[in-house]
Protein: 2Fe-2S ferredoxin
Amino acid sequence: MAGNEIHVGAAADIAVGEATVLPMGATGHWDDIAVFHTEDGGFHAIDDSCTHGDISLAEGELEGLEIECWLHGSRFCLTDGKPQCLPATEPVGVHRVEVRDGEVYLTIVDRKQG
Ligand code: FES
Structure:
């Protein structure tokens, strides 16, 4: 394990189309972090709170590389964090995820508060 990596868990434990949430107490980040396993086989990590309201994006609907907030329907791109439609206008923070030997590791790269 290198640098400031955080061990998320085994890749096989996060089903495709699902997310696991790392609570802020476990990472030291200002927000919980959601790690998604997308249908292309990739893993993506973003700040879990919708920038429009205090809603967990991990509980939303994953479509391709976008996560839809279940409350008002804003969709966020998992690769750049930008909202794709209203009502959210601010991006969520995006973090780095690597998979090695079947294990998922997170590096927090965007510390600004959304
Ligand atoms: S709380 Fe997420 S779009 Fe309104």
User: Anything to note?
Assistant: The first strand starts at residue 6 and ends at 10.
